[in-house]
């Protein structure tokens, strides 16, 4: 039997959110090969175990080199934004881990990464969650090409007359 609070949380869950009380874990792809090789060297040199036993569940999991929480990442970003502000740099939107996530996805989409690959990288269960980015992409592409939705009346009349001539 599901407790009523849990059942209600499942029913009112908003798009993209985990039910109350459940922690979201996201994977961050490391695409910089030099950085990855340096991490591998650190792990090998320090003999850091690649797996650990989860004390809570008893299962064997991949070990983390260091614990990174939402707060850790927010602190890093806050420090970077403060340093940028000291140099006179301002941002038009709040800089958060989530805006980085959206930016990463849009850059991958602009680079031509297939939607199914993006879905996997973003950890979306449903392709419809990933397709939201294609709508933004389409609006951006249309704006770049200056799509015109009207024309002078005389041009429209000429075009129609020539078409049937």
TrEMBL record:
MF GO annotations: DNA binding
GO biological process: DNA integration; DNA recombination
SUPFAM superfamilies with a match to the protein in the record: DNA breaking-rejoining enzymes
PROSITE patterns documented for this protein: TYR_RECOMBINASE (PS51898)
Source species, domain of life: Bacteria
UniProt-recorded name of the protein: Integrase
Annotated organism of origin: Escherichia coli
């Amino acid at each position: 039997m599901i407790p009523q609070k849990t059942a209600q949380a499942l029913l009112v869950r908003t798009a993209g959110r985990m039910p109350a009380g459940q922690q979201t874990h996201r994977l961050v792809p490391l695409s910089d090969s030099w950085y990855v090789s340096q991490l591998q060297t650190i792990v090998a040199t320090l003999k850091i175990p690649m797996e650990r036993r989860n004390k809570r569940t008893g299962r064997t999991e991949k070990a983390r080199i260091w614990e990174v929480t939402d707060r850790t990442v927010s602190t890093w970003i806050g420090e970077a934004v403060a340093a940028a502000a000291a140099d006179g740099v301002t941002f038009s939107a709040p800089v958060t881990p989530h805006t980085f996530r959206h930016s990463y996805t849009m850059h991958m989409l602009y680079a031509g990464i297939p939607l199914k690959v993006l879905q996997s990288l973003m950890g979306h269960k449903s392709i419809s969650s990933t397709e939201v980015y294609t709508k933004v992409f389409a609006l951006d592409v249309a704006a770049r090409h200056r799509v015109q939705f009207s024309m002078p009346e005389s041009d429209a009349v000429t075009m129609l007359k020539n078409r049937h001539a």
